[in-house]
Amino acid sequence: xxxxxxxxxxxxxxxxxxxxxxxxxxxxxxxxxxxxxxxxxxxxxxxxxxxxxxxxxxxxxxxxxxxxxxxxxxxxxxxxxxxxxxxxxxxxxxxxxxxxxxxxxxxxxxxxxxxxxxxxxxxxxxxxxxxxxxxxxxxxxxxxxxxxxxxxxxxxxxxxxxxxxxxxxxxxxxxxxxxxxxxxxxxxxxxxxxxxxxxxxxxxxxxxxxxxxxxxxxxxxxxxxxxxxxxxxxxxxxxxxxxxxxxxxxxxxxxxxxxxxxxxxxxxxxxxxxxxxxxxxxxxxxxxxxxxxxxxxxxxxxxxxxxxxxxxxxxxxxxx
Length: 320
Known about the structure:
The protein is an alpha+beta fold.
């Protein structure tokens, strides 16, 4: 029995590594990749089991698999990394939140935003939630906004302390809004986008295929943002419904983007839980930067939503 358990654990680790490495083709592979942050623990258990079984070959395989699992997670953690000389820049504080179909506590959200943010990106904005934010005085601190409220999970919002110039709506069928931000002292206006990709588990026979199509389209859209911005900074924040261990998510970074968690070495930063009684387990909310540098990022609990918000500080060069 111990040998059987050992082999099963090793096979699970191998399957998870494959799921993480190649583009996801189906829901089982997606589930394996989504849970990859915990796979090193399974690999460690497998190594312990191989030692107990005194199977030298299995032990060697287990050690190699454990080392591989750890190696792919290390870049997400701060291991004493040092940064080079940065150009003169201004810090933009970005608050990104999925507000669970408008159910977030408006007072708690407004207090957090006023104290901690310059830019707000929001998904699942309903008309009722937008009205509550307006009544709560959010516009006093964030007078510039682009709002597309919708029933359910389809609404989007972008608020700013600084003037916004909206970019053309998405041509790719995704639920994104984007704008250039007139930041005092910055020569070229940064592009900021609020994004929400559909869930691959939302229900329906073709949900995974639709998610795969949308995230592939997002890569093209992010390339368009980069082209529009030119040398200027780009900041993309929102609910990606994808973890860093999914190949399709990492492919989004191909045109010069960095994930703020990776850039800062913030480590494992889960943002979503399927149930209020369970702490967040997976990281599906992200802040991406281009021609700019994330200085810090952390998660924040806000009452009324099943997602932790992200608060990121991004250094935007004054002269790109």
